[in-house]
């Protein structure tokens, strides 16, 4: 599904060059729920951004569905993200000036989907995350857990094959975190969506199929927890 | 996408209020500046309405020994004949002290049966005046010998005064009230911009120099042939000095125009400089506000890029939003601006306001477009990961 080949990423600031990722080779398989762990600053978010084509690696190749993504134009990358990837962030990244329903519709806005169909799909997605009664609210009127569920609805509304989640439970207490985790597990189990999740929580990671550990930009461990049953 | 834009704008009405106000004020400022510029341009473009090339002006003091009205009229006749006898002189005619490009004026209120209280310039002119300046009649006729015997005083008015006093209807044969006198209109002439290239057309009323006025009119407009030179001017000066006996001054009308124009350009240059500063101010103000607004939204931009917006569509959206906002601001602005021609605030033709409105609308749109495009492009060019990172 996703293949990373010899990925390197370095950030150059005025004085120093930080090597955020060092020769990462990683494959994520269809239907897999993969978790990534590692200490703060080890490059987990950077890795996820590169997988999601939000950032370009300094060296190496990203293949998605066997397609090399190196030479895609900005427009093609945007199209690719829109069609195949859903993002969930630690800080939710909802647009505060849009109501819940409009936030969820957002990915469909960049597709050729009619307005009524957009509303229909967004409502379905919100129902899946149990928020059908909060559609007219603004993000500021929701709890953290509810915000993250809106973000999940937004990530799944376009039925992407892959969901990339960067510490989706990082800002939530454990009860809410578990709810979110259950949602993701359910999504993976019922819809077969491939999920890559960065987490700091060992118990969350244990519930996934495979755990990859990073340290200082390098992959130190790849541990299969469960078999994926296709 | 459009309905999405409106939703976004509506939900942010508080922040957008500031932006709309800024655009609205900018529009009004530009409307004022453009009104002045269009007015000045209109004045400039309006034809002079007469010819000043090869027209000289001889000014003198009526000699002390000329006492009676009749002898004053006779004296004018002598001078006219003397001037006409020079082969280089095409025509010569008398005028009051406020001949074209002289820096004096005389005005007063007049009224008609339809209208009262219109301010107009008063001019004194003899039968040759029209021909010397090659001015044009619109209807009726200029003064002639026949007016010597007319019962009531006769006047010629210009097109503008006809419009103001008689609603533009033919004024020939009608009367104008002035200080208890009833002046009969015998002719309407084309407007003359007698105060220079950049000045507006004003109401004008010409009175015939009759015997009573001859003593007070001592300016002769002399149309000479193109080749007339300094040698001839010297000759003319000597001849006139001999006849008149007091000091004579000969000036050239084209030089007077140059001087007059320099004077009227000064306030216009000041106005243009002030207008220029205002334009720069408006541009910088709008740019600043738009720049700030767009930079505040970097994380939103990052998110839109993540869910599938290309850099291009993000910058299109930002520009689109700004244009929708400016349209709202302009609609409010138009409502106020249109009151000027409707209520006839200031004595300006409606066309000046309308052109100024069109120019200000175009100006604001172009400015907003450019001011939104640049920060929009910049914001869209950053990597989505970087934009998302800043929270
Ligand atoms: N835009 C950037 N410019 C410079 N350096 C950066 C940038 N983004 C990340 N880095 C550096 O790259 C390294 C990896 O950062 P990254 O955000 O991927 O870490 P992380 O594993 O996600 O950490 P955390 O668990 O705290 O989220 C860090 O040393 C960080 O300082
Ligand atoms: Mg991180």
Q: Which structural class do you get from the secondary structure elements of chain B?
A: alpha+beta
Query: Order of helices and strands of chain B, N to C?
Result: HHEHEEEHEEHEEEHEHEHHHHHH
What number of domains of chain A? 1
Uncertain ranges of chain A: none
Over all CA atoms, what is the radius of gyration of chain A? 17 Å
Question: How many strands in all of chain A?
Answer: 10
How large is the radius of gyration of chain B?
A: 31 Å
Number of helices of chain B: 13
The total strand number of chain B stands at 11
What general outline of chain A do the C-alpha atoms trace?
globular
The level-1 CATH class of chain A: Alpha Beta
Bin the strand percentage of chain B: 15-25%
The structural class of chain A is: alpha/beta
Q: Major sheet of chain B: size, sense and barrel closure? A: 7 strands, mixed
Q: Quote the distance from N terminus to C terminus of chain B.
A: 26 Å
What is the CATH superfamily of chain A? P-loop containing nucleotide triphosphate hydrolases
- Largest sheet entry of chain A: 6 strands, mixed
CATH architecture of chain A: 3-Layer(aba) Sandwich
User: What is the approximate shape of chain B?
Assistant: elongated
Task: Please characterize this protein's 3D structure.
The complex is a heterodimer of chains A (230) and B (391). With 230 residues, chain A is of the alpha/beta class. Chain A has one domain (30-39, 73-224): Rossmann fold. Helices cover 34% and strands 27% of the residues of chain A. Chain A is built from 7 helices and 10 strands. Chain A has a 6-stranded mixed beta sheet, with helices on both faces. In chain A, strand 4 (59-64) and strand 5 (67-68) form a beta hairpin. In chain A, helix 3 crosses helix 4 (115-128), helix 3 packs parallel to helix 5 and helix 4 (115-128) crosses helix 5 (144-156). The longest helix of chain A has 18 residues, at 174-191. With 391 residues, chain B is α+β, with helices and mostly antiparallel strands. Chain B has 2 domains: 2-46 and 265-390, no CATH class; 55-259, no CATH class. In chain B, strands 3, 4, 5, 6, 7, 8 and 9 form a 7-stranded mixed beta sheet that branches. In chain B, helix 2 packs across helix 10 and helix 10 runs antiparallel to helix 12 (350-381). The mean pLDDT of chain B is 89. The interface between A and B is medium-sized, with 32 and 27 residues. The site of adenosine-5'-triphosphate (ATP) has 12 residues of chain A, from strand 2 and helix 1. Chain B: It is found in: Cell membrane. Chain B: The chain crosses the membrane at residues 17-38, 265-294, 323-340, 352-374.
């Amino acid at each position: 599904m996703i293949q990373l080949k010899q990925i390197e990423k370095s950030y150059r600031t005025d004085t120093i060059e930080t090597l955020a990722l060092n020769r990462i080779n990683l494959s994520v398989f269809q239907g897999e729920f993969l978790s990534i762990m590692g200490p703060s600053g080890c490059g987990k978010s950077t890795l996820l951004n590169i997988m999601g084509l939000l950032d370009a690696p300094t060296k190496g190749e990203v293949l998605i569905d066997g397609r090399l993504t190196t030479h895609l134009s900005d427009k093609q990358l945007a199209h690719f993200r829109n069609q195949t990837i859903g993002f969930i962030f630690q800080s939710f990244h909802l647009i505060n000036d849009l109501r819940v329903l409009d936030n969820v519709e957002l990915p469909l806005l960049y597709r050729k989907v009619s307005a009524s169909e957009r509303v229909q799909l967004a409502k379905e997605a919100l129902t899946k995350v149990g928020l059908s009664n909060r559609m007219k609210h603004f993000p500021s009127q929701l709890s953290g857990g509810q915000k993250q569920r809106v973000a999940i609805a937004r990530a799944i509304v376009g039925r992407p094959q892959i969901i990339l989640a960067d510490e989706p439970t990082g800002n939530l207490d454990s009860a809410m975190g578990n709810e979110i985790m259950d949602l993701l597990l359910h999504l993976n189990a019922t819809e077969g969506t491939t999920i890559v999740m960065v987490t700091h929580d060992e118990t969350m990671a244990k519930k996934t199929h495979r755990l990859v550990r990073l340290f200082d930009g390098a992959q130190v461990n790849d541990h299969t927890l469960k078999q994926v049953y296709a | 996408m459009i309905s999405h834009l409106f939703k976004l704008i509506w939900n942010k009405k508080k922040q957008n209020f500031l932006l709309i106000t800024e655009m609205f004020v900018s529009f009004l400022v530009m409307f004022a500046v453009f009104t002045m510029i269009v007015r000045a341009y209109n004045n400039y473009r309006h034809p002079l309405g007469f010819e000043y090339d090869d027209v000289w002006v001889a000014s003198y003091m009526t000699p002390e020994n000329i006492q009676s009205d009749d002898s004053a009229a006779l004296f004018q006749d002598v001078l006219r004949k003397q001037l006409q006898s020079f082969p280089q002189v095409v025509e010569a005619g008398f005028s009051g002290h406020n001949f074209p490009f002289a820096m004096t004026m005389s005005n007063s209120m007049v009224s008609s049966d339809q209208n009262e209280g219109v301010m107009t310039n008063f001019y004194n002119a003899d039968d040759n005046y029209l021909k010397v300046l090659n001015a044009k009649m619109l209807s009726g006729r200029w003064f002639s010998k026949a007016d010597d015997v007319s019962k009531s005083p006769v006047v010629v008015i210009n097109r503008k005064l006809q419009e103001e006093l008689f609603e533009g209807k033919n004024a020939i044969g009608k009367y104008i009230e002035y200080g208890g006198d009833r002046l009969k209109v015998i002719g309407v002439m084309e407007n003359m911009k007698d105060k220079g290239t950049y000045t507006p057309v004003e109401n004008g009323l010409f009175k015939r120099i009759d015997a009573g006025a001859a003593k007070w009119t001592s300016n002769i407009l002399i149309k000479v042939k193109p080749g007339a030179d300094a040698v001839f001017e010297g000759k003319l000066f000597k001849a006139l000095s001999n006849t008149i006996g007091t000091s004579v001054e000969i000036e050239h009308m084209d030089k007077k125009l140059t001087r007059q124009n320099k004077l009227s350009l000064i306030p216009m240059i000041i106005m243009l400089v002030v207008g220029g500063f205002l334009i720069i101010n408006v541009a910088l103000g709008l740019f600043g506000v738009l720049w700030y607004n767009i930079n505040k939204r970097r994380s939103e931009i990052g998110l839109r890029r993540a869910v599938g917006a290309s850099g291009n569509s993000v910058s299109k959206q930002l520009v689109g939003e700004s244009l929708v906002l400016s349209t709202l601001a302009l609609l409010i602005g138009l409502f106020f601006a249109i009151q000027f021609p409707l209520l006839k605030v200031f004595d300006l033709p409606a066309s000046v306001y309308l052109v100024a409105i069109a120019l200000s609308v175009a100006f604001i749109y172009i400015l907003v477009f450019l001011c939104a495009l640049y920060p929009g492009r910049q914001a869209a060019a950053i990597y989505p990961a970087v934009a998302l990172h800043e929270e």
